[in-house]
Design brief:
By secondary structure, the chain is an alpha/beta fold. The chain contains eleven helices and 13 strands. The strands form three sheets. The protein has a five-stranded mixed beta sheet, sandwiched between helices. Strands 1-4-3-2 form a four-stranded mixed beta sheet, with helices on one face. The longest helix has 18 residues. The site of zinc ion (ZN) has 6 residues, from α8.
Length: 308
């Protein structure tokens, strides 16, 4: 039998990490024994594991500056771990009560209910409920969360670049799930507070564009002051429907990657156009920034809008 036995999570200290996984997530402490680093200093071999699971987590205390620097960022901000549970609501409520930080509200996906949370180190996890039909396709879909290319040139990235790349990643995920290639996210106080994808196909609803999904989730879960000071990032310039929704939501800054006119040329559509023209009709001003990294934004559309 071949299987992944252990995955290491780099943490600052053993005890808080053990408490998090055992007390909050309900894992078992499988092993906690003395060991030594390759440099000869003492460490502990600490393994936790969900009951009945095969794959465990090695809680590795950061040794030195280089390791300390990646605590909580092992996956460069992507979701790196996926925890599937039988009773989503019970787990979610227990974790919220225990103070676990969730990045967004629970949402329903074709592969089950999902909510993104941060572990004790700050790594992103998906909490996943049971798949509607527990077949291989669902498991694959869940494992593809957070997949995609790694952004290049991180050293010179602006914040707008960084968030736009994340929006493009979400668009790629949407496409991988059989939806249209669009993604959007909301940033407030220099952090992502919500993410959304296009779900037109999976939810069989032509209005479920990424930006509209995002605006609806924002109003259901976030305080209005937070929404008003937030920025919406989207992989492709918003269509007229979403431009309207963004305006009515109170969001007053929009950053996009791929221009609507370019998409229109690609998809043989003339309905979408510069969103600035719509926003400009309002007395309350909305700042529009873009195109940002349009070549990267274009990539997710390639081969999708073929009419043949
Ligand atoms: Zn739209």
């Amino acid at each position: 039998m071949t299987f992944v036995q252990l995955v290491a999570i780099v943490v600052h200290e053993y005890e808080p990490a053990i408490r998090f996984f055992v007390d909050v997530l309900g894992f078992e402490l499988v092993e906690d024994s003395p060991a030594t680093t390759t440099g000869g200093s003492p460490k502990r071999w600490v393994v936790v594991r969900p009951p009945d699971a095969q794959t465990g987590l090695l809680l590795a205390r950061a040794d030195g500056q280089q390791q300390a620097a990646i605590v909580g960022n092992q996956h460069a901000g992507r979701v790196g771990f996926f925890l599937r549970v039988d009773d989503f609501a019970a787990h979610y409520q227990r974790m919220v009560a225990a103070g676990v930080e969730f990045v967004g509200p629970p949402r329903k996906e074709p592969y089950g209910q999902v909510a993104v949370f941060l572990d004790i180190a700050g790594n992103r996890w998906d909490l996943l409920g049971p798949a509607p039909q527990a077949n291989q396709a669902d498991v694959r879909a869940a494992s593809q969360l957070g997949s995609g290319r790694t952004p290049q040139g991180a050293a010179t990235m602006t914040d707008d670049d960084k968030y736009i790349r994340r929006a493009i990643d979400l668009a790629r995920q949407a496409r991988e799930r059989g939806n249209h290639p669009f993604g959007a996210l909301l940033v407030a106080d220099e952090r992502i507070v919500l993410e959304a994808e296009n779900t037109v196909v999976s939810q069989n609803n032509p209005t479920h564009h990424a930006e509209l999904n995002l605006v609806q989730a924002a109003w259901q879960t976030l305080p209005s002051e937070l929404i008003r000071r937030s920025t919406l990032y989207t992989s492709t310039e918003p269509c007229p429907m979403c431009t309207g929704a963004i305006f009515w939501s109170g969001i007053r800054r929009v950053v996009f990657s791929f221009p609507a006119l370019d998409l229109g040329a690609m998809a043989h559509d003339r309905f979408c156009g510069p969103c600035r023209q719509l926003f400009e009709r309002a007395e309350q001003k909305t700042e529009v920034v873009g195109p940002i990294l349009p070549d990267e934004g274009r990539q997710v559309h390639l081969g999708f809008w073929t009419t043949a």
